[in-house]
Every structure is written in C-alpha cells, then in structure tokens.
Amino acid sequence: MPGETDLKTLLESMHPVAREGDFVYALWPHGRALEGNIEAAVREAEGLTVVLPRAEADKLGLSYDFVATWITLQIHSALEAVGLTAAVSAALTHAGISCNVLAGFHHDHLLVPVAEAGRAMDVLRLLTRGVVLRSEQPEDRPEILELTARAFSVSPVTGQPVEGTPVEVGLLRELFECDEYIPELSIVAEIGGDIVGHAISTRGWIGGFGLVALGPIGVEPTLQRRGIGSALMRETAARATAAGEPGIALLGSPLYYPRFGYVPATSLGVEPPEAAWGEHFQLLPLPGWPDDVRGTFRYAAPFQGL
Ligand SMILES: CC(C)(COP(=O)(O)OP(=O)(O)OC[C@H]1O[C@@H](n2cnc3c(N)ncnc32)[C@H](O)[C@@H]1OP(=O)(O)O)[C@@H](O)C(=O)NCCC(=O)NCCS
C-alpha cells in the first residue's frame, strides 16, 4: 500500500507512541563485529553510529551521552511525503525540545531527551489537532487581546456574561508593557496561524523573593476542553523550571489547577494578597523552591489597580 503524502492528513492521523525504556546513541567500536539488540545504525566515513536500548549499551560496554525516549509516529507516511518531519521538528523546536529524527520504511521515529518525553508527547498530540505552542511576539498582541475578550466574556468568578470589555483585557494590555513582563512566559497556542489560546506569567514577590504569577490564561471558547489550556499550563511550568524560577503562583479554581501540581499557597506558608482568596490562591513549587520562604504574595503593579 502506498504511504500517505498529504501533510494535513498525515498530521491528523499521526498517532505518536512512546516505546518502553530508554535508548542511546553510541559509536560502535571500529573493527568489532556487530552484535546485540541494535535498533538503528548509520554508517559514516568516521565510523558506525548505533541506536539501542540503554540496558543493551551497558551490557555491551558502549559509552553514550544522549539518553532518549523513542517516539514512533504511527502512520504509514510515504518516504517522499513533504513536510511531516519539518512540521514535527518545528513544533518541538518551538517548545524548546531537541529531537533526532529517524525515518524507517513504514514510520518516522523521534528520539527526544528522556526528561522532555512527556512534554514532547503533549506537543505531538496537539499537533495532530493542528495546535502549535510558541512565544508571543509583540505583533500578536491585538489578536491576543481579542481572544482574551472572548474567553472572559463570561466571568470565571460569577459564571455570568460580562457587560462591556472584560477587565482581563485591560490588565493584559498593561502586563505586556510593565517591568514585570517576562517575554518567554507569554505563550500562545496557534492553529493554522490563528491564535486560539494564550497564557501569561509575570514577576511577583514574597517580600524580596521573586517568583512568577500565572494569569490571565484564556482559550477560544469554541475550542475549550480539548487540552489547549492544559498544554499552556504544562508549557509554562516547563519554561519556568528551565529558567530556574522557584515557583508559580495563581488565583483560580481549586478544582482545576491541582491536576498540574498546584497546592494551596498557605500550605507552603505563603499568604494571598487578599485573605478572602483562601484556597483559590495556589502555588506550584518548582525544583528550586526554598522551604523557608514565608510571607504575603505581591503581584506585578498592573494587578494592584484591579
Ligand atoms: C480555563 C481554560 C483556560 C481551560 O482551557 P481548556 O483548553 O478548556 O482546558 P483543557 O481542555 O486543557 O482542560 C479542560 C478541563 O479543565 C476543566 N476546567 C476548566 N476550567 C475550569 C474551572 N474554572 N474550574 C474547574 N474545572 C475547570 C474542565 O472541566 C475540563 O475538565 P475535564 O478534562 O475533567 O473534562 C479555559 O476554559 C478558558 O479560557 N476559560 C475562560 C477564561 C478563564 O476562566 N481563565 C482562567 C482564569 S485566569
């Protein structure tokens, strides 16, 4: 059966599957006969590269640096299909995830760093629905503000329709311009060039201790409950962790955010700016979270005017 060549069909029917276990790239010792459970090999003038399970490399005494998760794109793509590899690697690049691509006769295979495997699977699943995450650019802002107006046209607090422009629109406009704005933590979700989701995080403080505060976050109303909001939440946490941020604070539903690891901020000794927020004020401690931070959280200046 000839393989599929249409890029949109390829992306929609692509089913990423992560194989069990860790895999590594190793150089095969010159002159040694090939043996063991080799999954892929590339011969170059300089030597033979092999890809194999980490346990097998250990057994064979091979050294390696890159430890990867092997993701197979389960679709019968034609070897001459144009753009699948480019679309996949562009989406992973936007998410800051490095990947090595291997093409077999039947499928394409991606080797991504083990620590990034979960996020890579998120990116690939979103891509099957045409969704790409990337950093906001200043020229995106009018479109983001329009999206935010639609997302918050029903108040998340009262559940009632909002009259006029939602406050989140003015807040976001100010956050884009304030000193506490962090460019790489303003993230858009895009489908076919249209912005369908956005999350921003800005600098906040507990006394003199800096961390980040997430919000507002909004997804196009007609596209909610398809995982876009969750992807923006996870992407924010991954970027903040990579940037060495110690934690992320937010005000939101105690029913929604605990699934991403958020806990009531008070359980970590951090008080909300307004006591009445109670359990709605939540905190995600990241790997650098110090146990001895105590005090009241302070948002970026534009939040003070709300
Ligand atoms: C909150 C929001 C960003 C989530 O985006 P999304 O793409 O719909 O989220 P996902 O598809 O990843 O997740 C949907 C899940 O979250 C739940 N959820 C979303 N908002 C929730 C809330 N306020 N309270 C409880 N659960 C909520 C949904 O019930 C759904 O649960 P399920 O998977 O168990 O069915 C989106 O609903 C939105 O833009 N809402 C309007 C603006 C808003 O309230 N922003 C948050 C405050 S800043």
Task: Set down the secondary structure blueprint.
Blueprint: H1 7-13, E1 16-18, E2 23-28, E3 40-44, E4 47-53, H2 54-60, E5 67-73, H3 84-94, E6 100-103, E7 108-113, H4 117-128, E8 131-135, H5 141-151, H6 167-177, E9 181-191, E10 194-206, E11 209-219, H7 228-242, E12 247-251, E13 263-264, E14 270-271, E15 281-285, E16 295-298, H8 301-304
Parallel strand pairs: 11-12, 14-16
Antiparallel strand pairs: 1-5, 2-4, 2-5, 3-4, 5-7, 6-7, 8-9, 9-10, 10-11, 10-16, 12-15, 13-15
The protein binds coenzyme A.
Coenzyme A is lined by residues 151-152, 156, 215-219, 224-230, 252-253, 255-256.
Describe what is shown at a glance.
The protein is an alpha+beta fold. It has helices spanning 7-13, 54-60, 84-94, 117-128, 141-151, 167-177, 228-242, 301-304; strands spanning 16-18, 23-28, 40-44, 47-53, 67-73, 100-103, 108-113, 131-135, 181-191, 194-206, 209-219, 247-251, 263-264, 270-271, 281-285, 295-298.
